[in-house]
Amino acid sequence: MPSNERVSEVEERLASFRKEDIPYSRVLSSMCTTPHPLALKAHELFIETNLGDPGIFQGTRELEGLLLEILGKILHNPNVAGYISSGGTEANIQGVRAARNLMRNKIKNPKEPNIVIPKSAHFSFEKIGDILGVEVRRASLDDDYRVNVAEVESLIDSNTVALVGIAGTTELGQIDPLVELSELAIEKGIEMHVDAAFGGLVIPFMDDPYPFDFQLEGVSSITIDPHKMGMATIPSGGILFRNERYLRALEVETPYLTTRTQYTLTGTRPGTGVASAFAVLYSLGFEGMKEIVSECIKNTKLLVEEMRALGFEPVIDPVMNVVSFKTEKAERIKENLMSRRWVISTIRNPRAIRFVIMPHVTEEVIGDFIKEFKKVLKDI
Ligand code: 0PR
User: Fold this and answer.
1) Beta-bridge partner residues of 4
2) Exposed/middle/buried for 68, CB within 10 Å: 0-12, 13-18, 19+?
3) Residue 341 domain-assigned (yes or no)
4) Which residue, 50, 151, 180, 344, is most buried by CB atoms nearer than 10 A?
5) What is the pTM of this model?
6) Do 252 and 344 reside in the same domain of the chain?
7) Average pLDDT score over the chain
8) Per-residue pLDDT averaged across 47-62, rounded?
9) Closest ligand 1 atom number to CA of residue 169
10) What domain count does the chain have?
11) What are the C-alpha distances in Å from 217 to residues 82, 100, 168, 325?
12) Does residue 118 have its Cβ closer than 6 Å to ligand 1?
């Protein structure tokens, strides 16, 4: 055992490294947030669990099933199949991988599969092209930054395995015309993946929610991440499929494990994200989530008002709690704020500064930010 001095030294060093991290109360550009208090105990209780060997962690596996049922209900699908992943990147990989595998013998040249995605897609699709050997075709956007359906159609050919729509784009929080995309997927006989990594736990709790999920018959898979608006501990992503058939397309044999096959991308994987997401979603229920989402949307509107008063216009009227404001000085603003230890991000097209109004971005945080932002405007 190490000496007491060494143990205290380690504790002090860990605390001091941790202090260098910028606290969430000064971060206005993250899709993650302080975990909900309900998530913490659950996380601790499941800290040694490994869903990579569900024959051992039978209770954790059962809990994952219950969480999937909750997510399935939110996404209008009682037959949902899937699992809790390391995040949206893994979920997107697996969604596309299942589509590619299922379509392999249906396309003209099985060696040259392609997918059609919106130009606004998250950079995880760049990795997908590289890892899965699928050609990634990017369709342009309309004036509201939604994918242009006619262009998606023109990019589809006899080697297309799937098209992708986004419910809550990373940069603007926009929702693609998923109703039309779903019809197109059915018409062309291809799979459709919806990236609702962020919007999946926002849209269902908004007034008059836009249909983005398994209600749309063309939708085969959905990414929905509890470690974003689900306030679960990291890592907690979600890949959900219309039915079990998609899991079969991902399976490999696991000869020496307690279970026969595995359909996840990672082997060893934590049960903490399952437990913390379950704790939050089950305790809060639909009404509790609705309250949190409406508060975030109210605060987004507050930020828009404050920014308009300072002469900044949003790129689009915010659809959810993501908003970007046009400015040629985006980079300088971001850097100046960073030197004051405030974090926002920028987007390039159009040049703008971007905000994500997560539950930790309260009215008070926005007030503090605007005070600091006024100083920045004098500086630059
Ligand atoms: N799909 C969409 C629509 C996303 O916005 C993201 C992440 C992903 C997929 C990938 O999810 P994972 O990061 O869980 O694999 N969007 C955020 C972004 O790139 C991720 C993020 C979160 C970045 C917190 C920074 C941060 O502080 O902006």
Assistant:
1) none
2) buried
3) yes
4) 344
5) 0.98
6) no
7) 97
8) 97
9) 3
10) 2
11) 18, 19, 20, 35
12) no
